[in-house]
TrEMBL record:
The name this protein goes by in its record: Probable Xaa-Pro aminopeptidase PEPP
Co-factor(s): Mn(2+)
UniProt entry keywords in alphabetical sequence: Aminopeptidase, Hydrolase, Manganese, Metal-binding, Metalloprotease, Protease
Record-linked Pfam families: AMP_N, Peptidase_M24
Function: Catalyzes the removal of a penultimate prolyl residue from the N-termini of peptides.
Family the entry assigns: Belongs to the peptidase M24B family.
UniProt-listed Enzyme Commission number(s): 3.4.11.9
Catalytic activity from the UniProt record: Release of any N-terminal amino acid, including proline, that is linked to proline, even from a dipeptide or tripeptide
Residue ranges constituting the Aminopeptidase P N-terminal domain according to the UniProt record: 12-146
Any GO MF annotation of the entry: manganese ion binding
GO biological process: proteolysis
Length: 426
């Protein structure tokens, strides 16, 4: 039986990724040549002898699966040869950090053809350029090339095309990447459940944040994609708290949002809004498959929000009129001026991609008040009914969805059904 752990027991498919990036470059430039990438550098915190928190560069990891700092990689697309360069041993650091990986050990860990030291980068580049008689190009990313790195002997050095080629290639996830995302989601689900348990006794949001981070680290996500808690110090008990948080597992991130009732049950107004948002998300996810236009998904979310707010009496008028006037943007403010202005995706969804579906309804005076004061839109909002919902604050539900040819797969399993959330919160 194939499981996440059995998939991840194999090597990260670095060579397959390098080949895909090379094919993208070839399609754009007629040839892929040589790809050069560097890992993130270690840096000291200002006025300190401690290193800054380390996060690996995504392009480098995509072509290596390596989390080591100060490393590099070269891919010779003509020979289909992937070479990883790791830092040589620093005798002074061994006493503090132990022995680093040797080239032989690294070759067993990573899906590469050979492993050398970073002191061999320039000689390797020169050898490759010579073997191709100076007829091939070198591709790198601007501002991610160390001083002293020498591309002499190549026909050209392109520092603008590689980043785009990698970003476009990374849109389509292979089975290994989906397994990494599933692992990040599984760990993040544990963190969200820990947050619900912590909320029962927490006197401020900082304690809930600590529960999330602790659960992530304990289960293998040392870094977090995001932990958004708006109010980290207040002791005031609110009706609910919105948490946008996810762990990062080997550079692959979960991004999950849930709302927790702080007294164990959702207040009636919060429950009504939550039900609308859950319907928005459920119907939008059901719509997803290869080729679906994201604009259409976003429009559907707005229409469901309009219907729900009409039913509650917060909005008045017809669905079509409210949609055309963009009145729902006051409550679902993914954009400020037009309904589609700030969407992060403006295309048809390809199979293999992963997107977040995160509808929400928010009661924010700074956004709603201008709509109320404008004669052409204020007439559609019943202020007396609205007054009962300010305490809701906001409700957002966010899951990570893997797009397939015939539908989609939800990678997120954190509880979101009202009865499930309340049973954990009581």
């Amino acid at each position: 039986m194939t499981t996440v752990d059995t998939i991840l027991a194999a090597k990260y498919p670095a060579k397959a990724h390098a080949l895909r990036v090379a094919e993208s470059l070839k399609a754009r430039h007629g040839g892929a040549g040589v790809i050069y990438l560097e890992a993130q550098k270690t840096r000291l915190i200002e006025d300190s002898d401690e290193d800054m928190p380390f996060r690996q560069r995504r392009p480098f990891f995509y072509l290596t699966g390596c989390l080591l700092p100060n490393a590099a990689v070269v891919y010779d697309a003509v020979k289909d040869e992937l070479t990883l360069f790791i830092p040589p041993i620093n005798p002074e650091s061994v006493i503090w950090s132990g022995l680093p990986l040797s080239p032989e050990e690294a070759a067993k860990l990573y899906d590469v053809d050979r492993v050398l030291f970073t002191t061999d980068v320039n000689s390797t580049l020169a050898s490759i350029a010579s073997s191709h008689n100076g007829q091939t190009a070198a591709f790198a990313i601007a501002e991610q090339v160390s001083e002293g790195t020498n591309f002499q002997g190549f026909a050209e050095t392109d520092t603008t095309s590689l980043k785009t080629a990698i970003e476009e290639t990374r849109v389509i996830k292979d089975a290994y990447e989906v397994a990494l995302l599933r692992k990040a989601n599984d760990i993040s689900t544990k963190a969200h459940i820990a947050a619900i348990h912590a909320s029962k006794t927490a006197t401020n949001e900082r304690e809930i944040e600590a529960a999330i981070i602790g659960a992530c680290i304990a289960n293998g996500c040392r870094e977090q994609n995001d932990v958004d808690l708006v109010d980290p110090v207040t002791k005031q008990r609110k009706n609910n708290v919105l948490i946008d948080a996810g762990g990062e597992y080997q550079t692959y991130c979960a991004d999950i949002t849930r709302v927790i009732p702080l007294n164990g049950r959702f207040a009636p107004e919060t429950r009504q809004i939550y039900e609308i948002v859950l319907q928005m998300q459920t119907e939008c996810i059901a719509m997803l498959k290869e080729g679906v236009c994201w604009d259409d998904v976003h429009a559907l979310a707005h229409r469901i929000a309009i219907r729900g707010l009409l039913k509650l009496g917060i909005l008045r008028g017809s669905e079509e009129e409210l949609f055309e006037r963009r009145v729902s943007v006051a409550f679902f403010p993914m954009d400020k001026d037009t309904m589609f202005r700030y969407l992060r995706v403006r295309a048809n969804l390809p199979a293999g991609s992963v997107v977040t579906v995160e509808p929400g309804i928010y009661f924010c005076r700074f956004i709603i008040d201008p709509v109320l004061k404008a004669p052409e839109t204020g007439k559609y909002i019943d202020t007396e009914v609205l007054e009962r919902y300010w305490s809701v604050g906001g409700v957002r539900i966010e899951d990570n969805i893997h797009i397939t040819k015939d539908g989609s797969e939800n990678l997120t399993t954190a509880p979101k059904i009202i009865e499930e959330v309340e049973s954990l919160a009581l």
